[in-house]
Write a structure and sequence with these properties.
The complex is a heterodimer of chains A (333) and B (166).
Chain A lengths: L2 H8 L10 H12 L18 H24 L21 H10 L10 E2 L1 E7 L1 E3 L11 E7 L5 E7 L23 E7 L16 H14 L10 H11 L3 E2 L2 H12 L4 E8 L5 E7 L8 E8 L4 E9 L12 E7 L2
Antiparallel strand pairs in A: 1-7, 2-4, 2-12, 4-5, 5-6, 8-9, 9-10, 10-11, 11-12
Chain B lengths: L9 H14 L13 H14 L4 E4 L2 E4 L4 E4 L20 E6 L3 E7 L6 E2 L8 E4 L6 E4 L5 E5 L3 E3 L8 E3 L1
Antiparallel strand pairs in B: 1-2, 2-3, 4-5, 4-7, 6-11, 7-10, 8-9, 8-11
The chains are: A alpha+beta (333), B alpha+beta (166).
Chain lengths: 333, 166
């Protein structure tokens, strides 16, 4: 019995006045020792003087998290740029080695088309503006280039049909898109104003074509530390095909140059965006465009170039381009 | 060089075109949906009302002073404006990854800092649709590879462009 208990027993304040029955029972219990005094009961753990500070810190952190979550949830979400879906690939038995062999073995087209000055292609090319939001549709274009020996030239670009990422047509024409068939712009350049970098007609044999493309790459200052890569040759070929329409023989020669170079592999078969069957060649990035991988689609029956697609490997958050997005594609008819 | 062409009296025509562009509430550029020839005729009428003495010599042309000055408006269906350069809108400067102002386009208006162009890959042509001041095509070391004057273009750019500045 401690001092407090003894004092309670000796100084019952209700000794001369009736207590409620419940209180009387409790008091009797305490005085008789049937009920433990408070200090005999297990006390809660010791609470240091640092507890309030700790609680305040926790509260502060929780508040910060809540505020951050609210800010994130109410901030306008910026949509990613709409870009075409990647080409769908199917497995193929074709390999880069069988392609090289077939190129040598297969007969030439008995009635080959001829190479001609000027070019035409269709495609979609991402349009970015540092001051404006990204487009929410894909609008292909048709580009026509003409030029003369006097280095005059003209270009005309015509709007195609607006599409969604999966290629489905968007109707009616969405806001911000041009009416299909509209001339988006055209330019003319007078004599001497259009210094075509490929003034001479391209060769029609692989060796000649390789040297021709090598000369162009050298003119750009692309160093040649080893064998030229397939990506470098494709870059040069894509440039060439903005000025010349290649005939069958020249196209076949160009394909031979590219598939003979390092940095290329067969990805599969596909139906391109013009509905044509072709073999897809994956081409590794080059120092010219290190952020991109490229897919070249070829017809291995006619040995013609069908399409090329560029894919941004890492994307670009500043322009809301997701990783592995097609940023442009070109179709040659 | 431009879709809006000028016959003779180049300076006078430029003055007329500039004045017209200011006077008309709407830009001379046809919108993408501007396909109706009535719209073109309305523009012709507006120009003639503002600058009497001209003679309409074609669906989209007006001549003054017996042909000394000829104004050719954009044909219906054209989507660019008098002061645009190719598809590069007035006041902007643009990099293209295709020659002849074709292909993917990257458009800027700020001259604050050199603007990197890597997002479109290789730059093959450049347009400067600003009304004054040059645009510079720079290499990775900051060297100037080409200079494009106001309202001008570089249809075939040299290799190695990594930034544009103005």
């Amino acid at each position: 019995m401690d001092d407090l208990t003894r004092l309670l027993r000796e100084n019952n304040p209700f000794r001369d006045a009736p207590l409620p029955e419940r209180a009387t029972r409790r008091l009797d219990d305490i005085i008789s020792g049937r009920r433990e005094t408070r200090h005999d009961v297990a006390l809660p753990p010791f609470r240091s003087h640092r507890t309030p500070a700790l609680l305040a810190g926790v509260a502060f952190v929780v508040t910060l998290v809540v505020v951050a979550l609210v800010l994130v949830s109410v901030r306008p979400q910026v949509a990613m740029a709409v870009t075409p879906n990647l080409l769908e690939l199917r497995p193929t038995v074709t390999t880069i080695d069988t392609l090289r062999e077939d190129l040598v073995k297969s007969p030439l087209n008995p009635r080959p088309t001829a190479t001609s000055r000027g070019a035409q292609w269709e495609g979609w090319f991402i349009q970015l503006d540092a001051d404006r939001p990204v487009a929410t549709f894909i609008q292909p274009q048709r580009v026509q280039i003409a030029w003369g020996e006097d280095f005059s030239g003209s270009s005309r670009i015509v709007a195609g049909t607006p599409m969604a990422a999966d290629g489905s047509v968007i109707e009616p024409v969405p806001a911000g898109a041009a009416v299909p068939g509209t001339t988006l712009y055209e330019e003319t350049w007078g004599p001497g104003e259009y210094p075509v970098p490929f003034p001479e007609a391209p060769p029609e044999d692989a060796a000649g074509m390789r040297g021709y493309l090598d000369a162009f790459l050298a003119s750009l200052g692309v160093t040649e530390t080893g064998p030229r890569s397939a990506g470098e040759y494709l870059y040069a070929l894509s440039s060439l095909m903005q000025f010349w329409t290649l005939g069958d023989a020249a196209q076949r020669a160009a394909i031979e140059v590219i598939v003979s170079a390092p940095g290329i592999q067969v990805a599969g078969e596909t139906i391109d965006r013009a509905g044509r069957a072709g073999v897809v060649l994956d081409i590794a990035p080059t120092e010219l465009e290190p952020g991109y991988r490229t897919q070249l689609v070829i017809d291995i029956q006619s040995w013609r170039l069908l399409a090329v697609e560029r894919i941004s490997i890492a994307g670009d958050p500043d322009f809301h381009i997701a990783p592995d997005s097609v940023t442009d594609y070109t179709l040659w008819r | 060089m431009r879709n809006t062409t000028i016959g003779r009296g180049r300076m006078a025509a430029l003055a007329v075109i500039g004045a017209i562009a200011l006077v008309l509430g709407t830009p001379l550029a046809a919108s993408a949906a501007d396909k109706d020839s009535d719209v073109l005729q309305a523009r012709i009428d507006a120009v003639l009302a503002e600058y009497p003495g001209g003679v309409q010599i074609a669906a989209n042309e007006i001549a003054w002073d017996e042909g000394a000055v000829v104004l050719t408006l954009d044909a219906p269906g054209s989507a660019f404006g008098v002061l645009d350069v190719g598809s590069c809108a007035t006041g902007h400067y643009c990099a293209y990854n295709g020659y002849s102002l074709s292909g993917s386009k990257l458009s800027f208006s700020s001259c604050a800092t050199p603007q990197p162009t890597g997002i479109i890959g290789t730059v093959r042509s450049v347009a400067n649709a600003r009304t004054s001041g040059s645009v510079y095509a720079l290499n990775s070391g900051g060297g100037i590879l080409a200079t494009i004057g106001a309202n001008g273009s570089l249809p075939i750019a040299p290799g190695g462009i990594t930034d544009l500045s103005c």
